[in-house]
Every structure is written in C-alpha cells, then in structure tokens.
Design a protein that fits this description.
The chain is an alpha/beta fold. About 50% of the residues lie in helices and about 15% in strands. The protein has two domains: about 1-90 and about 235-395, Rossmann fold, CATH 3.40.50; about 100-230, no CATH class. The strands form two sheets. It has a seven-stranded mixed beta sheet with strand order 3-2-1-4-5-9-8. A two-stranded antiparallel sheet has the order 6-7. The chain starts with a helix and ends with a strand.
C-alpha cells in the first residue's frame, strides 16, 4: 500500500488531466481535495470491496470524491453541512437520462439568449429597468445592503433576470433548475467586484454588457458535457445529505467499506465567508453552517484558546462518527494538513490523538508543503509543514 499511497499524495503535482475531467472544473471551490488524489485513494480503500459496496465522504464539499467514486462505478454517499456544497455536489453527480441533460442544455441556451436580447432591446428603447427579484422569505432591503455593492448595475440586472427565469423553470422542474442555478453560481464571483472566493477585497472589474449571460450559457454547456462523460459508466446517482459529520449515526447510513475524506484544516479556511455572497444572492439559509463549521479561521481570530479546545473535541466527534460508519474490515483514508491556528497544529498528531481501539493505522504518507507568511517563522526548523494521508483499518 505504501507506494500507492505516496503516488496518491504526489498525484496533485503531476496529474492535471483528472482535475479538468468530468464535472470537476465547473465551479470554484477553494481547498478541495485534488481529484487525482481522490481517485487513487478510492482505488486503495476499495481494493478488496465487493461491487455493491459504498464509498463515504463525510466532508464531501463540492463532491470531488463522489464524482470519482461514481466514475469508478461505486455507490457513493456524501455528507456536508454547507448547504451550497450539498447542492453543488448533487448537480456535479447528477445521473439523469439523455433527454434530461439535453433539456438542461437547451434551457441554459435559451435563458442566456433571452437575457442578452432583452438587454439590447432595453438599451435601444431606453426602457426602465425591471425590479430586482426577491427570494421568498428574505427582506429585499437587507439583501440589497448585503449584495448591492458587489455588482455593477447592468451586471446585477442580467444576473437577476437569469435567476428569475430559473425560478420559472423550478416551478415544474426543480431538478433541472438546480443545474442552471449552480451554473449561475459558478460564474457569480467572476462578474462581481469581489477579488476571488478566498479574498473579499472589493476590486474594480469592467464586465461588458451581456457577459454574465454569455458566461452563464457557457457554464451550463460545461456542466452538461461533464455529466455526459460521467454517464458513460453505468451507476447510481450518489446520495448527498446536508448534515453534520459529527452526527452520522443519526442518518441511518448503510455500512460502508471505504471512506475517503479531507476534514477541515484547523484555522485555515472560512467557507461560510467564502460563500456568503452566493448565500445572499440565491437566498440560501446558512445559520446552521455558520454555527457548526469545523475549525473556521474566524473562530481562531476571535478566541484562539477556545477555538483550539473546540477543534480537538469536534475532531474527536467527527472521527468517532466516521469510524462507526465504517464496516468491520473497511478502510478509511483521511487527508489532513498542518496549519497555524493560534499556534502550530500538527494534523497527524491531532488525528492520532482522537483515534480509539476500533481502528489501526495501517499506512501513512506525507509530503512537505510550502510555508506561507508567518508560517515561515512559526514552524520549528526541524519539523516542516506537511500534508498527510493516514489510512485506518476498522477492526
């Protein structure tokens, strides 16, 4: 298993093909597990599993592991507390007949074309802009305060017109509407004044009239093309559940023979903040995710000592839950990374400290990672910053 595990760890550095295949590139999602690593780890943990066995990712994010498991013909289960991630993972693994995929493509083309045409006609006629849509149950004034500054007026009108058309589709076909919604989500930051998913700095960005609609149409095409590639391997659509990984026992999941997952790195990312503009634009409720996100950067900036204590407890609960979900004889591959969360956190030590006697560590590989900013001074000279893969065997 050793050489295969090392290859899984190193694959992100040389395998660019996997990351650009299937539906992996259709939507940005910072710090996702590299698809090439996911594919190799699935092969490792499912090496001796029967064909009906299931793969679980309890921190599935945008669905990287689920996509690769589905492409390999395995039954796949995903869990995440982030409501946007769950919707995205479902779309990226959508297993539907050819006519359904064709309908999504045709509707994407039609909506993009209609919005571009409406924009040209409005400019020629000097028409008054239509009112902005308001997601049901959300105060329109509060929503405007949160998102108004992030879009130029003409871009905002295009985006709202596209979403209004998607809302009409959803009345009769919620499934296809979700594909279209995630296509719009995929280009939202690209036409905004937000620098990037991970950087909320306001920047001047000149977006041509009609660009948002055109990019939306292109993104629908990309999603459908990826889904068509995914459909070449017969299989079931993965089950994706919006839930807390610490509470897997409440989900009544079937026993799984393999787990591949990458729990959050302590104090490194703040997914609730990264997706907040999307939450506000689409009207996605996210209070449970705000409260329950594991080890977000904002918690360590607020109270490092309390956040560290909670992180250790949360990690123990999450690992205990995933071990319980693993069938006897099953394997779990966990990808974890060292970080700075008030102080240096050695991820392998944190993980090993919460393991119980139901599992054995049967393989471990690591590679050195670049130290960024203050990390260069905080990590000990004799202990580099590392990313690890640890494989557990359920007794």
């Amino acid at each position: 298993m050793g050489p295969a595990l090392e290859d899984a760890l190193l694959a992100a550095g040389y395998d660019d093909v996997t990351a650009e295949s299937l539906t992996h590139p259709v939507h940005p999602y910072p710090a996702r597990l590299h698809p090439a690593t996911a594919a190799r780890l699935i092969a490792i943990v499912m090496d001796t599993a029967g064909r009906g066995a299931a793969v679980l990712d309890p921190f599935c994010g945008s669905g990287t592991v689920l996509i690769e498991a589905r492409a390999a013909g395995w039954r796949a289960l995903g869990v995440d507390l982030n409501p946007l991630a769950v919707r995205l993972a479902r779309v990226k693994t959508w297993t539907a007949p050819v006519p359904r995929r064709r309908l999504a493509r045709e509707l994407g083309r039609r909506i993009a074309g209609d919005v571009m045409l409406a924009g040209r006609e409005a400019r020629r006629a000097g028409a008054t802009a239509p009112p902005l849509r308001g997601p049901a149950g959300f105060d329109p004034n509060a929503r405007q305060r949160r998102i108004g500054k992030w879009f130029s007026p003409h871009v905002r009108r295009e985006l709202e017109s596209i979403m209004a058309a998607i809302d009409e589709v959803a009345v009769d076909d919620a499934e296809v509407a979700e594909v279209l919604t995630m296509a719009l989500s995929g280009i939202l930051y690209k036409v905004s004044h937000r620098r990037s998913d991970t950087d909320p700095t306001w920047v001047e960005r000149a977006v041509a009239r009609g660009a948002a609609a055109r990019l939306f149409g292109d993104r629908v095409e990309m999603i459908v093309a990826g889904l068509e590639d995914l459909a070449r391997v017969p299989g079931l659509m993965p089950q994706v559940i919006e839930a807390d990984a610490r509470a897997l026992a409440k989900l009544d999941l079937p026993p799984v023979m393999g787990i591949v997952t990458s729990p959050p790195y302590a104090g490194t990312y703040d997914y609730a903040e990264q997706h907040r503009l999307r939450f506000d634009f689409f009207g996605i409720r996210h209070r449970a995710f705000d409260d329950g996100e594991l080890a977000p950067r904002r918690a360590f900036l607020s109270n490092s000592a309390a956040a560290t204590t909670r992180w250790r407890a949360d990690l123990g609960d999450a690992v205990g839950a995933l071990v319980s979900a693993l069938a006897p004889g099953g394997l779990a591959a966990l990808v974890v990374g060292d970080s700075i969360a008030g102080k240096v956190c050695f991820a392998d030590e944190d993980l090993r400290s919460v393991l119980d006697d139901r599992v054995d560590v049967v393989a471990w590989a690591w590679q050195e990672r670049q130290k960024l900013g203050p990390e260069r001074h905080l990590f000990p000279r004799d202990r580099p910053k590392r990313e690890h893969i640890i494989v557990l065997h359920r007794r």
